[in-house]
Amino acid sequence: MKTESQIESILFVKGEPVKHSTLCEVLDISTEELRNALVKLEQNLQIEGSERGIRLVQTTDTVELAAAPEAHELVETLNKKELTKRLGRAGLETLTIVLYQGPVSRRDIDYIRGVNSTAILRNLTIRGLIERRESEDGKQAIVYQPTTQLLRHLGISSTKELPEHDDIGDKVEQFYETNEPDDVQAIEQDEEQSDTSGSPDEERSESQQRTS
Questions:
Q1: Ramachandran assignment for 81, one of left (phi > 0), alpha (psi -120 to 50 degrees), beta (any other)
Q2: Which residues of the chain have pLDDT under 50?
Q3: Predicted pLDDT of residue 165
Q4: Which residues contact 64 (CB under 8 A, 6 or more apart)?
Q5: Nearest-10 Cα torsion for 112, 115, 116, 121
Q6: How far apart are CA 111 and CA 187, in angstroms?
Q7: Cα–Cα distance measured from residue 102 to residue 152, given in angstroms and rounded to the nearest whole number
């Protein structure tokens, strides 16, 4: 498989901005080779007459896939449909983790829940309940945190005001300490292999993952 195709697969599976350094490490290529591959991928996505539905979005050190501008109305329709659905158990579970542990990476959320959370995180972001931002420590490219709108809705000014906030934090730390490092590697491998396109029936999909 060509390098640009490998990059496209990685970006699709991750569903979030990926650092250039991460791509270089995973693909074992140089910065120059990455730059050339990204140029080819961008050209492939913008070939005249191809009507591809996705585009490459880049910052100085990250890259991700996004919907093409021409698909704006379609995406808006899909988002509105998503907003009419109930959060469900999986959504509430993920939102609780973000509230009590945010800013938190998707990898850590997946580790706590034991399943891939990409589709759920996208849904919560669309609803304006959580937001993505770059990690300040540089260890994680993207982390998730509750929005100010959600905090206002809950009647609090800080997550520190959440019930038993400190106790929950201590319990999560104990969870990390009592689980083997191999568990983290298993989650990371699952992230690379899982389909993150988002099933219409996320609850059923997650149930299958938990019982498999």
A1: alpha
A2: 180-205, 208, 211
A3: 66
A4: 11, 14, 16, 17, 18, 56, 57
A5: -60
A6: 6
A7: 16
Cα-to-chain-centroid distance, residue 108? 11
Whether 7 contacts 41, CB under 8 Å = yes
Which position has the token pair 């992230």? 191
Q: What SS3 string covers 129-188? A: CEEEEECCCCCCCEEEEECHHHHHHHCCCCHHHCCCHHHHHHHHHHHHHHCCHHHHHHHH
Specify which residues 132 forms β-bridges with. Answer: 144
